[in-house]
Amino acid sequence: MVKKIVFGNFKGGVGKTTNSVMFSYELAKEGYKVLLCDLDPQANSTQLLNRTYRRQHGEPLDIDKTMMVAIQENDLEPSVVEIMDNLFLLPSNKDFVDYPDYLELTFPPDVPDYKETRIAHFSNLLSEIEDQYDLIIIDCPPTISIYTNSAIYSSDLIVVVLQTQQRSLDGALAFWEYAQTFYNKYENVDFGIAGILPVLMKNDSGVDNQIIKDSIEIFGTKNVFSNIVKHRDRLKRYDREGIADPDITDTWDYHDKRIHELYSAIANEFIERIEVED
Predict the structure, then answer these.
(1) pTM value surpassing 0.90
(2) Which residues form the domain of 13?
(3) Within 8-93, where are the H helices?
(4) Using CA atoms, how far apart are residues 262 and 122, in angstroms rounded to an integer?
(5) Do you know which Pfam families this protein is assigned to (predicted)?
(6) What pLDDT, on the 0 to 100 scale, is given for residue 33?
């Protein structure tokens, strides 16, 4: 049965997009059929996977239909593109900024329960294609918005990405508290927490270690990933050039190998957490 997972934090710049993409990529390498949904009009996940496709195939990713057009046609499937074996993308684009206006016009206030109907719309469309995948990972903006609400409404599990700085911890706590309030507000949502994923700003830093200790105290030991995303400059290069893969391209080195080993370990812990939830 498919699992839909939202990556979130109400603090921007914490590595949420990078980690949602790396999770999707590594889980696909592990043999899971993965769909990454980019529910952010900034389209950062789409840009990263576009660069990855270009790096690995030597040509740009061909996106015939944006997600916004697919939503207007009430069929998401034609917008889905294949990045590599087992990894698929529901791409965002600058036209996705029109999504809130589209919902207001499609579901005006005279529609029964119009607020929830708007929030549930993406989930309803996603349900038509979700059984084609093992895992669906949803990246959303670091704000309270119809995009984030739509992502949470669609989800089975939430991963809170926690960069080891105080503002990120505050944003992580705010996101989780908002999600709990959201859970209590709508009867048709049912999600759990897959974990708090620590992302180090610096390796072996006193402040970073203290933030991790604080997160364990706040969220509980079982809710914090034991595998930690250590600071890696190579991830910045991936944002610019796309993901290097030892099995696909010949332009990789030891640093790329370490990145894939790290995310393989985190992905395996993630799967274990999903199995515990079941």
Answers:
(1) yes
(2) 3-277
(3) 16-29, 44-57, 67-72
(4) 33
(5) AAA_31
(6) 97
